[in-house]
Amino acid sequence: MKLITGPELRQVVQCLELYYRQGQSQKDIAQTLGVSAATVSRLLKRAHDDGLVRVELDLPRTQALETALVQRYGLRDAVVVASGGRADVREELGVAAAAYFEKITAHGMRVGLSCGFTLYQTVHALRERRLRDLVLYPLSGESTLKLVDISPNTLVGMAAARYRPHVTAYALPVQHVQSSRQLLRERRRLLRDPEVRRIYAGAQDVDVALVGIGLIDEQTPGFCALAEAYGVSVNRLRQLGVVGEINYQPFDVDGRIVDRPELRALVQRVLAVDGPHLQSLSRHDDRWVIAVAGGPGKVEAIRGALRGRFMNVLVTDQDVAAALVA
């Protein structure tokens, strides 16, 4: 499709002015401009398709639930979106998280990204070049060659594309080995590399961290899929008391990291910012750890993460928030 130019562009601008700023109907605009209503409709659609119009949703936030979450779990802030607006609540959460991120983030900040479908929606909802001179870090290396579109390195790349050219972005390497002995050897080898060590240290000291909260379920990618590859089933994870994971850190219902021998290989498998570092960042008044999670079945995992104080801001949906404060 060709870009709008010349007389047609002038007509488009007039249509946008009358339709969006003056609130006129398409029929009234057609009479004003001396064209058909169908032409007005076509011009508005062209403007939208060519990026001249962007739709931003300001979804309802349930203030009472937000206040209750903050008071109950000692959060700095909470964002609760109305449930049922879209078929997939992760899109709603992503839009809300992106808006919150842009509200609290300043030029030149260091930002860390975890992984998952909801964070993909968050990065997708960011507005281009809204911020300058950000430094972007993955909060973990990749754990698998599958689903690379929702991995930390990919999400960092997506976010960097939003802010080009005023952005610096890094990646963390992948470890594709199986035995515990190989894992420890590979981990030490990677951290002997000055550049990898510098990036890993930077990821542990970001100003803003965006993280998801993983559900322990057969259909969950990431940590659960990795556990299956190491012979640890979802049923076994539940037997060990694991109710959720955050940045590949498994935790129990009280928010304690589950440190068992059969899980250590999983945790060491990924070069990731660990639970204590997330907890430390959450305690700082000048740092944000924003957890974005919601949807059916995640209440127990989110409650555990809240009790563990792995974040100081929660973005969730109304149904989950109501269950958390019930």
Feature tags:
Arc Repressor Mutant, subunit A, 15 helices, seven-stranded parallel sheet, single chain, Rossmann fold, alpha/beta, three-stranded antiparallel sheet, 326 residues, globular
Number of domains: 2
* CATH third-tier fold name of the largest domain: Rossmann fold
Gross morphology is: globular
Q: Which stretches of 5+ consecutive residues score pLDDT under 50?
A: none
Tally of strands: 10
Distance between the termini: 53 Å
What is the CATH class designation of the largest domain? Alpha Beta
Count of discrete alpha- or pi-helical segments spanning 4 or more residues:
15
- What structural category characterises the helix and strand content? alpha/beta
How does CATH name the architecture of the largest domain?
A: 3-Layer(aba) Sandwich
Query: Strand arrangement, largest sheet?
Result: 1-10-9-5-2-3-4
Strand content: 5-15%
The percent of residues in helical segments reads 40-55%
Major sheet size, sense and barrel closure: 7 strands, parallel
Q: What are the secondary-structure elements, in order, as H or E?
A: HHHHEHEHEHEHHEEHHEEHHEHEH
Cα-atom radius of gyration: 23 Å
Rounded mean pLDDT is 86
